[in-house]
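Project standup — Tuesday

K.O.: blocked on the structure for the chain from last sprint. Re-posting the sequence here as requested.
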Amino acid sequence: MKKVFLLIIAVLALFSCKSVPEGACVIEGKVMIPDYKTMYLVDYLGNQLDSADRSNDGSFSFVYEGEPMPQVVVLEFRNPESAFDVMYLPVALEPGKVNVVLGEYIGLSGTPLNNSIKKFFDEMQTLSDKFEAEVATLEAKKSAFS
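H.V.: unblocked you, prediction finished:
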């Protein structure tokens, strides 16, 4: 009886784990801004690859198994009440699990390319904050951003 019970527990544990399908890119996210109700994955040509609706708790997910990978796409967050209320976030589609959080700050992590995109955003924010704190000439700003 104990062996049957342990076997059932092992099978339930195996099937309850969410895993990334081999070679797929799984994007799991949470939107903390209630106005953004629909998300779209859009490629560099403007083609819509997929869409997802925000659940009641703010979560959403995509599973991309297409080609080519890796590629950078745009994750569009849309407010259905206003055609002008759209937020764009570049996301790398590469095998693995990508985590996205949209709130006061943007969270992007999980795969090497997405970690690099987030690092770039953080460095741009640091540079921008520095220029807000200090009065800088236009030439100094151009030099720093280039």
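K.O.: great, moving the ticket to review. Confidence is low (pLDDT under 50) at residues 1-17. Helices lie at 2-16, 112-133, 138-145.
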